[in-house]
């Protein structure tokens, strides 16, 4: 697995360096920046600010009184870990941030193989890791973003879930909840897992001790999933500090407004493709996703990973507005790559690897590389 991971990083590094060489002056770097500078643009700069000075005690507001963009949209586990390493080693933020991301990504690849071996043959599990390593957004695994750390913690939680080791998940959940949003989706998946086990208890015994462990884990995970909202509210004196800060990022698209669950994707569909076409494509995408999970290929990866896929998809539908960063927000669905790894045809496997590498180039071009006024942040 580590050989696969290293080779995939060579590919992604070549692509990143190619775009860095062509990069013009922008808000973060001079022309043709070095790798460290290029790897810390976009959200990487927010993580640098948090690592250097922490969080503001008030939420900034715009000229018309709305909550503006600030560090409160970004959780502290990743930047504080990098800060601790800078204090320990004396090294700069950029190389340590990249190092943490790469090490977490390597750990995710190793855990993903062990996770998929619970449901897939050895060769298919290994190819799932290949697809993870070369996926279109895999350059994010080696830049100053918290995704690698979140995926590592998530993969550990899912591995414990399929092993039915519930309470040991909680230390991982505690860190995950302060790394990236998604703990609420995990709590929902754990709850669905418990319901499924209760439903099948006649064929698969579900002792009361395990019922209690599942319930405690689901409830504590849900509470941790909203903990950052409480921290932001306590520090700033505004109970809605986190949610309003997150909403500031969608304001350039649809303006300011409250968060109404399950409406953002409808609003986004109508904004991107008005006249009903966006809604039609949204429905097609949802139906296709459902078929993927419920079809014969989807059933091959087991119930628990499909429950996670359904829970996280519902979470995204409930709270996130679709835009260019949505591709990044889909990364936690990476266990579903096991479905794409099922066909054993060499043509299929070679073709999808090539398509994924081409996808890396396309994503870097449209979302990471800064080309003048760029409204497609990663």
Automatic annotation (TrEMBL):
Sorted UniProt keywords: Endoplasmic reticulum, Glycosyltransferase, GPI-anchor biosynthesis, Membrane, Signal, Transferase, Transmembrane, Transmembrane helix
Membrane-spanning intervals of the chain: 88-112, 119-137, 143-162, 169-192, 212-235, 247-265, 271-293, 305-321, 350-371
InterPro entries recorded: PIG-V/Gpi18
Keyword Magnesium: no
UniProt topology in membrane: Multi-pass membrane protein
Subcellular location: Endoplasmic reticulum membrane
Signal peptide: 1-22
Pathway in which the depicted protein is active: Glycolipid biosynthesis; glycosylphosphatidylinositol-anchor biosynthesis
Domain of life: Bacteria
Predominant subcellular localization, coarse grouping: endoplasmic reticulum
Protein name listed in UniProt: Integral membrane protein
Organism encoding this protein: Frigoribacterium faeni
